[in-house]
Amino acid sequence: QVQLVESGGGLVQPGGSLRLSCAASSSLLSFVIMAWYRQAPGKERELVAKITSGGTPNYPDSVKGRFTISRDRPKNTVYLQMNNLKFEDTAVYYCNAMTSAVSSYWGQGTQVTVSS
Question: What number of other Cβ atoms are within 10 A of residue 82's Cβ?
Fold first, then answer.
C-alpha cells in the first residue's frame, strides 16, 4: 500500500510563500503522474499542479506563474513551491499519485491559510 505524507502547510500573509512536501513510501518511478490538489471549505477538490513521469508540469490558470511543482526522485518526494499567495489559495492541499494501472493514492492533506 502506497503512503503519501504531506508537510509544509501553515499560516502565511498575502504575498508570502510556502513550500509543501509530499513524501512517498515507494519510488516515484512507480507513478505516471504526481499531483497536488486543494479543497477549500464548501468547494470541490481542484487540481493545482501535476507532473508526469517524463517531467512535464501542468498548472491551471489560477496558479500559473505562482506555483511550481518539482520532484526529488532519490528522496521519493514531490514539492509544491507556492509564491505570491492570495486569500483564495486558502485550502487543504492534498498530494496525489497515479500509477499506470490507474490506481490513485492520496495523502492526508495539509492546511494552508493565507491571512493578514
Answer: 26
Determine contact, residues 101/95, Cβ cutoff 8 Å.
no
Please, what is the Cα angle at 97 between 61 and 23, to 5 degrees? 100
The string of pLDDT tens digits covering residues 101-115 is 889 999 999 999 999
- Residues 20 and 37 sit within 8 Å (Cβ to Cβ): no
| Per-residue model confidence as pLDDT tens digits over 34-54 | 999 999 999 999 999 999 999
What value, to the nearest 5°, has the Cα angle with vertex 48 and ends 42 and 50?
A: 140
C-alpha cell at 82: 507556492
Question: Angle 63-116-66 (CA atoms, 0-180°, nearest 5)?
Answer: 15
Q: Which residues contact 44 (CB under 8 A, 6 or more apart)?
A: none
